[in-house]
Automatic annotation (TrEMBL):
Protein name: glycine dehydrogenase (aminomethyl-transferring)
Enzyme Commission number, as recorded: 1.4.4.2
Region (Disordered): 1-20, 500-521
Classification of source organism: Bacteria, Pseudomonadati, Pseudomonadota, Alphaproteobacteria, Hyphomicrobiales
GO molecular function: glycine binding; glycine dehydrogenase (decarboxylating) activity; pyridoxal phosphate binding
């Protein structure tokens, strides 16, 4: 069955049914087996000499049996991983609409700079005397971050957003203890990233939730109701996870400070306001910055990330070691608390000073764009998100009314009522259209949330095609064409997976299948 464009319809893959292949391949779409299935245990693609006699230091932990790893030739190895890479979806293959994750384009200039001699091969155990340029660059990047945020100090050590949250909240806790106070409560809005309450709880605070108004923002009066001498801080994301700017942020900061508490800002969405608003001017005391989101460095895959934390004057003395100090134009690294002078570092959060490659990429991004370019990137991200919102609002429902958003547009599933199609069904059908699904079911304050963030990376032509695809899916759902959704994706290599079963009963070890005999002639 063909659709209006003459392509196989979503109700089935006509090519796979009508023209099966012996290999399972579909032309250049190769059915790639597991490496354990194609490898041979008895061979290896590399000649390795037998080791000379030695005394093992592993004791009872020494392996007694074969390791069981597959052996492959170099061409087989290359083909295997290249084929797997072709099955992956990334920002270099298409639009990545994940809301709250900021999957923007990573300029190749940044990658080239990160691989320059003397940078790409730098090692954290080198003597400091051999890396003065690296220390100077860390200091310069920190200066730019302070300038962009309006904050006097920055801790560069944290490895990512959640690590940065931990750093900022530990600095707040250290400052409170230095005042001789004991405060036990942290306020967290209901719409916050899950790492916010987790971080507060990890360092011993009780989390008190702050509800959102009907428009998706935080009411200063609700904050004031919960303030007391026991409150240590509020953790507020701005723009928030509903894609909205907290318009009463200054009033909230004033109320928090009047109660003797601190204002921690989750900087995950800083990419919406860079060059437009300085968080320090809004009353922020600490904020982490995801270099791997706002300043284009690679995102995902478990790292490496970088989450520097900017600090107010009140918190600056408690920044962890190591940190960079610039005196008379010369940068030096303070590695030990005993060398921190009048400062009171909260301690050390990791062995080495951050992620050098991420620093280079972020610095390259900043220098190539300049202040005006970074401001334009923020403006374009907001423009693109509002273009998507305005182009879909006649078909898809908005939980907080048809009002301007920031860097991401948030829809709910009200418009799917009565169609027999769920949010998950809709997202899976997007895969058939060649798109990674948007963020689903987050933030939790919105039922059936569909959070879309195009970033500034996408052209109008790219957005128009994405919007047209979503409109076609939405109209199909409203027409009751449930077959298009119920089993989607139909064109992915493994169709729809049982995600619940996979999470609860994962198969973590490959076992050889039973041999299949050829049929007799």
């Amino acid at each position: 069955m063909l659709n209006r464009q003459g392509r196989p319809s979503a109700s089935g893959d006509a090519g796979a049914v009508d023209h099966p292949t012996f290999t399972g391949n579909r032309a250049l779409q190769v059915e790639e087996a597991l490496i354990f299935e194609i490898g041979r245990h008895e061979v290896t693609g590399v000649d390795i000499d037998e080791p000379k006699d030695f005394k093992s230091k592993l004791g009872a932990l020494e392996r007694t049996g074969d390791i069981g790893l597959p052996g492959l030739s170099e061409p087989e190895t290359m083909r295997h991983f290249v084929r797997l890479s072709q099955k992956n979806y990334g920002i270099d293959t298409g639009l990545f609409p994940l809301g709250s994750c900021t999957m923007k384009h990573n300029p190749r200039l940044n990658e080239k700079m990160a691989r320059l001699p003397g940078i790409g091969d730098i090692h954290p155990l080198q003597p400091l005397s051999t890396v003065p340029g690296a220390i100077e660059l860390i200091g310069e990047l920190g200066r730019w971050l302070c300038e962009l945020t309006g904050m006097p100090a920055v801790a560069m050590t944290p490895k990512a957003g959640a690590h940065g949250e931990l750093c900022g909240m530990m600095a707040i806790k250290a400052a409170i203890e230095a005042r001789g106070e004991k405060r036990s409560i942290v306020l967290v809005p209901e719409s916050a990233h899950g790492t916010n309450p987790a971080t507060a709880a990890l360092i011993g605070y009780q989390v008190v939730s702050v509800p959102a108004r009907e428009d998706g923002t935080v009411d200063p009066e609700e904050v004031k109701k919960r303030l007391s001498p026991d409150v240590a801080a509020i953790m507020l994301t701005n723009p928030n996870t509903c894609g909205l700017f907290e318009r009463d942020v200054v009033a909230i900061a004033d109320a928090v400070h009047a109660a003797g508490a601190f204002f921690y800002a989750d900087g995950a969405n800083f990419n919406a306001i860079v060059g437009k608003v300085r968080p320090g001017d809004l009353g922020v005391d600490a904020m982490h910055i995801n270099l791997h989101k706002t300043f284009s460095t690679p995102h995902g895959g478990g790292g490496p990330g970088a989450g520097p934390v900017v600090l107010s004057k009140a918190l600056a003395p408690f920044a962890p070691v190591p940190f960079v100090v610039v005196e008379d134009g010369n940068a030096r690294l303070v590695e030990n608390t005993s060398d921190a002078g009048d400062a009171q570092p909260l301690g050390r959060m990791c062995a080495f000073h951050g992620q050098m490659g991420m620093y280079i990429r972020a610095m390259s991004y900043m220098l190539s764009h300049g202040t005006d370019g970074m401001r334009q990137a923020s403006e374009d991200a907001v423009l693109n998100a509002n273009y998507i919102r305005a182009s879909l609002t006649d078909l898809m429902s908005l939980p907080f009314g048809n009002r301007a958003c920031m860097h991401e547009a948030l829809f709910d599933d009200t418009w799917l009522d009565g169609t027999g199609v769920t949010t998950l069904d809709f997202a899976k059908a997007m895969i058939d259209e060649g798109y990674h699904p948007m963020t689903m079911y987050f933030p939790l304050v919105v039922h059936g949330a569909m959070l879309i963030e195009p970033t500034e990376s996408e052209s109008k032509a790219s957005l128009d095609l994405f919007i047209a695809a979503l409109r076609d899916l939405a109209l199909s759902a409203k027409r009751g064409e449930t077959d298009r959704f119920s089993g989607a994706p139909y064109h992915a290599p493994r169709r729809r997976l049982d995600e619940t079963r996979a999470a609860r009963s994962p198969i973590l070890k490959w076992t050889p299948p039973k041999p299949v005999q050829e049929a007799a002639e």
